[in-house]
Amino acid sequence: MKVSTKWLNEYVKVDDLKPEELGEKIERTAVEVDGVSRRADGQKKIVVGHILECVPHPNSDHLHICQVDVGDEEPYQIVCGAPNVAAGQNVIVALPNSWIAGHIKIKKSKMRGELSMGMICGLQEIGFPDAVVPKEFADGIYVLPEDAVPGEPIWDYLGMDESIIDVDITPNRGDMLSMRGVAHEVAAIYDREVSLPHPTVKEDGSSKIEDLLSLEDADQELVAPYKLRMVKNVTIKPSPMWMQNRLWNAGIRPINNVVDVTNYILMDYGQPLHAFDYDKFDSKKLTVRLANEGEKLTTLDGEERELKATDLVIADGNRVIALAGVMGGKDTEVSDNTQTVVLEAAVFNSSKIRKTARRENLHSEASQRFERGINVATVQEALDAAAQMIAEFGDGQVVSGTLEINHVDPENVDVEILPERINKVLGTDLTDEAIVGIFEQLGFGIAKDETGTLTVSVPPRRWDIAIQADLIEEVARIYGYDNIPTTLPTMPLTEGHYTKAQKIIRDARAILESAGLSQAISYGLTTELKAKRFMLNEAEMTQLDFPMSSDHTTLRMNLISGLLDDVAYNQARKVNDVALYEQGRVFLREKDAERPNDIEHIAGALTGLFHEATWHDAKKPVDFYLTKGIVEYLMSSLGITDGIRYEATAEYEEMHPGRTAKIYVNDELVGLIGEVHPSLAKELKIKPTYVFELDLQKLIDLPKNVETYVPVSKYPEVTRDIALLVPNEITNDQIVESIKQNGGRFLADIKLFDLYQGEKIDDGFKSLAYTLVYRNSEGTLNDDEINQAFDKVVKKLQEELEVTVR
Q1: What is the C-alpha to C-alpha distance for residues 794 and 806, in angstroms, rounded to an integer?
Q2: Closest C-alpha to 690, from 634, 623, 625, 629
Q3: Predicted pLDDT of residue 303
Q4: Where are the transmembrane segments (predicted)?
Q5: Dihedral through CA 367, CA 370, CA 374, CA 378, nearest 10?
Q6: CA pair distance 157, 154, nearest whole angstrom
Q7: Does residue 225 have a cis bond before it (omega within 30 degrees)?
Q8: CA-to-CA distance for 669 and 538, rounded, in angstroms?
Q9: How many CB atoms lie within 10 A of CB 208?
Q10: Among 25, 294, 431, 447, which residue carries the largest CB count within 10 Å?
Q11: 469-515 residue pLDDT tens
Q12: Kindly report the CA angle at 387 between 384 and 388, in degrees rounded to 5?
């Protein structure tokens, strides 16, 4: 809502206030202010000019040479290329050495050999946006009224000397979507009087509206009230210059005297109006109803729209002529030939208007006000004011009477409250007189009974106030938020800290990032197909009843699908080396359950090179074992070191059957790891990609081996190497476990340093070589202790696993 301080000053005195100060006060007290501006700022030496003569340029097929009276002794010669320039016009002239919008300086120059003393301007060139420029002047210069005086600055003629406060109205303050509403607010802020003009309608007694038009009853839930007036013998022409100024300062394009009046009343009262051409009605009986499914309407913007059964419309007989509260129809629009105008004022169902405007993407000034509310007390007054102005500006007569259905008697809302309640909530110590004074500033009625209870009577123009909390907010606003004392809470303070689960989740993220992966965040909704892939456990899908799109119909049940979309996005943009992880929740629903369980998971996806080649290191491509190493690093860093095993599987059709494994901790399935199936990779247009996904909630619940600090031993460690000839079916884990069980209390570490299968090894066997590290933090180890422990290890390996010491 763009508020002109000059217009506002007609209702409440503000000319003694600086516009910036007024804007800042409104922002601190009522609603946000986006800015305060004045269109003339930064421009100078722009005056009214009168074109005395206009002849074609001898060296151009589109330029004209004009002799322009700008108030000096001699006319100025100006070359102009506008297609609508002509002798006898009053125009906007930027003199030599003037400044126009965009900080552009106009100098004396020559154009194709002819002297040009300045520039004849269009509105856009002096700072008016295209959206407010009258259509007849959109592609040329602007022609001023005949009474414009040559040589006078153009600021006053075009309203450029008015300061404009751009207020951003919140949904609860629809009353401020009007000049009168803003006037009441400013008057309350500064404790000043409001002086609002009220129209007097001069009706023509020769005709009555009920003889020319009728209204059919309508559901009160759809509209209440609905009113019509008529103006006959109207001449369509431009509206007065002062009205055009106010409209384009409010961001509205002037059209003609009828349409401009409806827009002016919209900005003044906040009451949307619509004007119909009476002679274009098929029937003289209007109806407010819901549309029939599939009905068609061509709106004023030329678009044919197929209506829904939830749309509220105005019908002329069986024909829809307007989308109620949103936009009128093309068939009954006011044109240059209109002679009789039917004016509509109403309060439509806000929910219906909002849904229609959103579905049709027709968010207009009118729909914005219907959605936020209308002052029912001024519906008739706004309609009367518009009818009288159209009659005056169009040389017409107002037809006697008003047609109305669903009449509403505006009533004040009474709210009772104790002053003590206000002070307790705000932490203030205001006297009863001060509180009463604030309500009186707001223009509310006030009464106090013998118990001290205040009864506040709120007028219909403040329909946002209905309960005690609303009154307390009003007191706080007008008293001033800056004046409310600041106090610290008296409750005992509790030091905040992460829960165990929160700490592990954050640690898991940090661990994967330290391993070289970057975090990705995917949408929680996906397709049915993607949702059921990569499932660790069986679960039911959860689908939305009203999805936003076909790609967001189902709650996700895995994280890998989202990561693969991210990989595809990157590779489509030539980023081939990708290492991503995501931590988030998946939604798994048990059979017959109404709601899904949300479970913490963590997953990763890697493709391309993990490390590029450098001068001293070879490149490192992503493979199964690199991915497995990252998973093991994650789990060990979280303190899960015992009972981890990987079991090969081919049951996942979206995973490579020979490069996929389930991850177990003891007998608990906690995740999967492997390569994405080549057919799925081809479908997603990605290169070979390795993924893993872990049930993070299970990892959180598992017992942990908490790392504790162990001082570095002061005594030397001892190592023993052993090489074993091992059958192929014996695994490294079996050998390591046997060594741990029999290595004695000084065994500190076991390292596999060689694996060999070749010519000197029998078929079905492999050679494994280990280093055993012994350490005693309390003293120096001797050979006897080490030899006894080492011999026991060798003996047990031979007995239990039937290996041969080489």
Answers
A1: 11
A2: 623
A3: 92
A4: none
A5: 50
A6: 5
A7: yes
A8: 12
A9: 14
A10: 25
A11: 999 999 999 999 999 988 777 777 777 889 999 999 999 999 999 99
A12: 85
Nearest-angstrom CA–CA distance, 427 and 443: 24
| Antiparallel, parallel or unpaired: β 765-774 and 64-69 | unpaired
Q: Which residues are annotated as a binding site for Mg(2+)?
A: 464, 470, 473-474
The secondary structure of 651-681, three-state, reads: CCCCEEEEEEEEEEECCEEEEEEEEECHHHH
Q: Which of 158, 168, 160, 193 shows the shortest CA–CA distance to 9?
A: 193
Position 133, amino acid = V
Q: What's the pLDDT tens digit per position in 610-664?
A: 988 888 888 999 999 999 999 999 999 999 988 899 999 999 999 999 999 999 9
> Rounded CA gap, 478 and 19, in Å?
19
Known binding residues are 464, 470, 473-474
For residues 792 and 742, is the Cβ–Cβ distance under 8 A? yes
Nearest to 303 by CA among 217, 362, 242: 362
Beta strand 655-665 pairing with 554-555: unpaired
Q: How far apart are the first and last CA of the chain?
A: 91
The tokens describing 409, both together, are 């008697």
Residues with Cβ within 8 Å of residue 476, at least 6 apart in sequence: 426, 484
Which residue segments constitute the domains of the chain, with CATH numbers given? 2-39+163-190 (3.30.56.10), 44-144 (2.40.50.140), 203-405 (3.50.40.10), 413-483 (3.30.56.10), 500-701 (3.30.930.10), 718-805 (3.30.70.380)
Q: Is the dihedral angle over the CA atoms 74, 80, 82, 86 positive or is it negative? A: positive
Strand, helix or coil for residue 274: strand
Residues in the chain: 806
Question: What DSSP assignment string belongs to 565-608?
Answer: HHHHHHHTTT---EEEEEEEEEEEB-TT-SSPEEEEEEEEEEES
DSSP secondary structure code for residue 34 in this structure: E
**Burial degree of 746 (CB within 10 A; 0-12, 13-18, 19+):** middle
CA distance 123 to 283: 42
CA–CA separation, 624 vs 674, rounded Å? 6
Determine how many CB atoms are found less than 10 A away from the CB of residue 529. Answer: 9
Q: Measured between alpha carbons, how far is residue 584 from residues 123, 602, 680, 693 in Å?
A: 55, 6, 23, 11
The position carrying tokens 């000034």 is 365
And the tokens for 749?
A: 């570490």
Strand 655-665, strand 689-695: pairing: unpaired
CA 774 and chain centroid, separation: 64
pLDDT tens digits, 179-214: 999 999 999 999 999 999 999 999 998 999 999 999
- What is the pTM for the complete model shown? 0.68
Closest CA to 564 of 672, 659, 683, 695: 683
- How far apart, in Å, are the Cα atoms of 271 and each of 368, 374, 710? 11, 7, 79
CA distance 391 to 396: 4
